[in-house]
Amino acid sequence: MTSQKKRLVFFLPNFGEGGAAVSILKLSKFLVQKNYSILVISIGKNSYKKDFIKINCELIEINSSRTLFAILKIRKIMLSEMKKNFSKIIFISNIHYANIISIFSLINLSKIKLILTERSSISELNYSNNFVDNLKNKIIYHLAKNLYKFSDLVITNSKFEKMFIKKKFQLKKIICIHPPSIKNILKYKKKRRSNKGKQNIIYVGRLSYEKGVFTILKALVKIKKDQHFTFTLFGHGPNIEELKKFIKDNGLTKLVIFKGFIKNKEHIFNKANLFINASLWEGLPNALVQSINHSVFPICSDAPGGNIEVINNGKLGMSFKTGDHIDLEKKIKKFFKDKLKLNDKKRRIHLKNYTESKSNQKYLKILNRF
After folding, report:
1. What is the pLDDT of residues 152-162, one digit of tens each?
2. Structural domain boundaries of the chain?
3. What CATH architecture applies to the domain 199-353?
4. CA–CA gap between residue 15 and residue 295 (Å, rounded)
5. Hey, what CATH class is 6-180+356-369 in?
């Protein structure tokens, strides 16, 4: 080991397919080239293991039934890291519950700098499906409010989240760095209807409760007789069978297509006319940024997080009241009636905030200060 290198340790419990994992992979690839040594820790399988190994990152997949039980294992790993000849060790945790675990794991390990990141929204702790989840969320929120101050820095994905945490937790050491949602800003591409005159509506993301897909379907049920469209869902998730049942029961079978998870963004957005995000909460949704980059008009919920920020307060899309399918129905009808399109100049200027290079450079500047 060389004492000239800084050691970065990324901890994300669930390293499955998703925005947080991809953001860490992109950042790691950049930082390896800047002479950083990187270790990635997950609980269970890391879906991007081959990708990390390819860019010379080390990986540890902790075998633990619950994240809480991994505290001692993480501490043991970090005690071992302290014995190595690095000039500095920086531990970067991702998402609130992992942040709490990280704080406990690093108690009294003052030589290790701790950065906490919020890649989702801490507002999600206000939502729960049952008493147990509600209690767990309240405990996590209480711990975060009282323990985040012991970190060296908190990084959020959106300005909304930065201001929310700063105010609620009374934090001073907090900044916003947008995720590396896009590599390059694409040229504006005029969107056309399909050969049959249909508008192509798409959803990209996890098929789970918090993503609000049922809200989209309820809105589409209302307009199916008056509008000519297809609705394609790109993603996997636990609610897929419930969604299929709803689609069948409400006469949407011929209008809805499930495509699963697809990495090729060009394939996803190329023929789309309208992108809908109906989340109950968000970090800063990469798919929403990517829709604008591919010249696809977006409609999104006004949920806590980065949605409104991404559409530039309505200058690059429309928003509807979170969970309100009637309001979403109105916005979809307006899109059809007014034939809404994105302003290319505003699009290009705004997208500069979400490029991979800008995000990477901001992280590098911060890490070089430690």
Report:
1. 999 999 999 99
2. 6-180+356-369, 199-353
3. 3-Layer(aba) Sandwich (3.40)
4. 30
5. alpha beta
